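Project outcomes to date are best conveyed with an example. Our students and postdoctoral researchers have been running inverse folding experiments weekly, and each run begins with a structure described purely in tokens. The record below, which covers 113 residues, was selected by the lab manager from last quarter's runs and is presented without edits.
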């Protein structure tokens, strides 16, 4: 007496690509490099759903905790205040604006021809 056992259903490359939302070309490369468990019959690749599930679990990474926010310097909440402070630091009464000395006025010849 021969008992017929149900044959295991394997996934083809299209079904696995859709299931994992990965391009078929990526799956072909991974299979060629031995990065993903597969069965090759002739030119066709087949994937055991149980092996794929185990492979996924083995590559699972726990979520990393969110990084703690960097310490803010005092008074950095208001951008307008920061800009005003930067201008005060650069535009001093004795120096004027940084490129004020290079500005030309009408009638100035400053050695140019």
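After processing, the design step wrote out the following sequence:
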């Amino acid at each position: 007496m021969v008992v017929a056992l149900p044959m295991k259903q394997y996934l083809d490359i299209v079904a696995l690509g859709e299931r994992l939302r990965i391009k078929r070309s990526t799956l072909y490369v991974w299979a060629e490099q031995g990065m993903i468990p597969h069965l090759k019959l002739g030119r066709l690749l087949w994937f055991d759903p149980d092996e794929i599930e185990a492979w996924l679990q083995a590559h699972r990474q726990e979520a990393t905790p969110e990084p703690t926010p960097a310490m803010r310097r005092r008074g950095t909440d208001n951008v307008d205040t920061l800009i005003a402070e930067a201008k005060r630091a650069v535009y001093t009464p004795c120096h004027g604006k940084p490129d004020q000395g290079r500005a030309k006025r009408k009638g100035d010849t400053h050695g140019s021809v």
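The chain is about 35% helix and 10% strand. The chain has a mean pLDDT of 80. The training component of this project remains on track.
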